[in-house]
Amino acid sequence: MLETIISNKRPMEFIPRNTEPAVRLHLLVVDPDSAVRSACAEIASSLGYAVESTGDLGQARIQLRGRRADILLVDLPNSANHGLELISEVKLLYPNTIVIAMTASGTVNAAVEAMRCGASDYLTKPFAMDELSTVLDRAAENQTTDKTARQVRERLRLSQGLGSMIGRSDEMEKLYRILSKVALSAHPVLILGESGTGKELVARTIHAFGPNAQKPFLPVDCGSLVPTLIESELFGHVKGAYTGANRSKDGLLVAAEGGTVFLDEIGELTLDLQAKLLRALQEREVRPVGATHRVPIKARILAATNRDLASMVEKGTFRKDLFYRLNVVNLRLPSLRDRREDIPLLAAHFLDRISKERGAKFTLSDEALRTMMRYDWPGNVRELENSVERACALTSGPVLHLGDLPTQLQRQGLEAHRASNTAAAGNDAENHEATGVRTLADLEREAIVSAIRTLKGDKLQAARLLGIGKTTLYRKLKEYGIADPLSED
Ligand SMILES: Nc1ncnc2c1ncn2[C@@H]1O[C@H](COP(=O)(O)OP(=O)(O)OP(=O)(O)O)[C@@H](O)[C@H]1O
Ligand SMILES: [Mg+2]
């Protein structure tokens, strides 16, 4: 019976797969030739599909109504019209069903027509068993990927964002669409965006929606560790590799065991480490510090930076080959001022979280929210989150007023008020000014500017004096919108 679909040229023994697909897909075989029909059904069943079959197009329609097929394998006889009609109809009624057409050899037109009507693939009779299983595998893979993407989209439709990501603006919707696909692949992803736009959150979301979400997610901050430490963090070391290395330790690329390693601030990697990382990615193995042997790695790499890597490549400070390897897919995160419509959603989300934590309900006054909508947010979502947290800590009641917001926001709010000549007497921001009370953020901003000025621009030294890390200092400079501390007023 099986001989009918074994081509004479390529006879081969069919070995049933012993691992079944995770989800049993439903396949409907439509072919008037009962031998072909049952051979296809037999092979597909042994591949793990739930199979139904029929020789009749009318019967096929009834069966499809009763139970939707994930994959439809349909014969197109020489007078292919009826089969084509069925394909068009199925794609219209059940757009998620993947259609594979079977055509007789020499009828290329029929295959072309079938594809035009919505078939995704075709098999030319006679075909070998492995051809059938390859085509079915391909369809199953597409079906599973599409199904997951559909589920993610559906979850999205019902929520305010994707996973822990909040935002329904067009920019974010576009990002979610790419993200839900990217999550299912194993390619490296380069995540770009200004500070505080959510690069780390995106990396965590990609990991969480991927097939290896149960495996570890391991972040490495390439900006705050010294190069020797990064090398040992990433690649591991053997006992005695350096002073203090009392025992061997696996690097994160090994420890991820199929999970994700997130290389944050990748633009800060030294050229020497860039070369070592490139080699590790190319060869899928690493040499721990001090070792002579190499260890295989199995980790997905996600990298992020707020620097312009392409121009670093031009200047020769970032390796071109590594850039291309990491940049297989890139996700550019929109800045908050380019998606202002998400500000109320984000603010509500943070207020909600804080309200739960404190057991007290906080809301924003209309005026405070209006001001937030107008503000430019140089520190993006992080600045918004900090502003809301700070306002909740400062406020004396459940409603957050303009005066509870950081000075730079109040300033913009006041300017807008003055401009429109509607400044309401006695608003909180003016109260702040009238009473001469300064906010903590204001004092912190001043301390930072003054420290950098005293040290004539030496930020490293300034951070030390202020008792904070270099990264924190840079973050605060961004949050407060201080581009050049030496020329601040
Ligand atoms: N779309 C979003 N929805 C909810 N929270 C967000 C979103 N984007 C960012 N955040 C929050 O904002 C803060 C900053 O995000 P994250 O650390 O991912 O930014 P980043 O781009 O890595 O910043 P940096 O460049 O400074 O490292 C985090 O607390 C994060 O949870
Ligand atoms: Mg980050």
Care to describe what's here?
By secondary structure, the protein is α/β, with parallel strands linked by helices. The protein folds into 4 domains: about 150 residues, Response regulator (Rossmann fold, 3-Layer(aba) Sandwich); about 170 residues, Rossmann fold, CATH 3.40.50; about 100 residues, Helicase, Ruva Protein, domain 3; about 45 residues, Arc Repressor Mutant, subunit A, CATH 1.10.10. Helices cover about 50% and strands about 15% of the residues. It has 20 helices and 18 strands. The strands form 6 sheets. A 5-stranded parallel β-sheet has the order 2-1-3-4-5, sandwiched between helices. A 5-stranded parallel β-sheet has the order 9-12-15-8-16, with helices on both faces. A two-stranded antiparallel ribbon has the order 6-7. Strand 1, helix 1 and strand 2 form a beta-alpha-beta unit. It is globular and about 90 Å long. The termini are far apart. The N terminus is likely disordered.
